[in-house]
Amino acid sequence: MQNALADEYRRLSRDTTTHQPLAYLRLRRAIRNVIQHRDIEPGQTLPSERDLSQALGLSRVTVRKAISGLVEEGLLTQRHGAGTFVAERIVKPMSRLTSFTEDLRARGLHPRSEFFERSVGEVTPEESMALNLSPGVLVARLHRVRYAEDEPLAIERSVVPASVLPDPHEVHDSLYEALEHHNCRPVRALQRLRAVLLGARQARLLHVTAGSAGLHIERRGFLDDGRVVEFTTSWYRGDIYDFVAELQTD
Ligand code: 16G
């Protein structure tokens, strides 16, 4: 792994198109790339700070700074006395508006969806409140299980105004890619998260036992002009996900 990382770091140092003059940012990108290419697997240890600084000819301060950024992003975890590992749980920073597909790709995982429903219909009273739509307006609905390779991670039900997404079959794996295609990817979101026990059907779909812990999340995504473009209800597996928020005093 150390060789793969050293090769990637040198490649980035030579690359004039994406040239990153700051060594710690270059190293951060090299580590991210080897995780994405699966040269290092979740749960495996990263070479020590000292080994990395020797192999790459960098100061330990630089190596530490590169690693600490990836720990904050949730890609790496540190255990006192045991070293730095590629995170096994998926750590999702709550301050960044990312999609399921992007979160998994960043970890070198292959995301995919299995749909139960892709339809267009009249907005329900609950959906019209969440999306600020008048009664009678049409919405596109997507109901799917989200997988990383063959492992189910979440169940999601998304509702999008049909004026934005007239045909829900345009969504293959990523809703945000389809919205981006229409220049309607949300730029801001409000998210409400609570702990739940997964019911029998949800548990079966997520390959866990009934009554396991889950996270129930509602996201309302907004466009620049304030229109609500997405109302998604998700049930994420509690045994895999950590949601992390950075807090600051006023
Ligand atoms: C995430 C979002 C969900 C969004 C989806 C888009 C959370 C809790 N939920 O799962 O609201 O619709 O990503 O992902 O983060 P996609 O572009 O891969 O379909």
UniProtKB/TrEMBL annotation:
Q: Which terms does the record give in the GO molecular function aspect?
A: DNA binding; DNA-binding transcription factor activity
Return one Gene Ontology term, BP aspect: negative regulation of DNA-templated transcription
Keyword field contains Ribosomal protein: no
Domain of life of the organism encoding this protein: Bacteria
Any idea which UniProt keywords this protein has? DNA-binding, Transcription, Transcription regulation
Read off the SUPFAM superfamilies from this record. Chorismate lyase-like, Winged helix' DNA-binding domain
Question: What residues does the HTH gntR-type domain cover?
Answer: 21-89
Q: Does the keyword Manganese apply?
A: no
Q: What is this protein called?
A: GntR family transcriptional regulator
Q: Which organism is it from?
A: Dyella dinghuensis
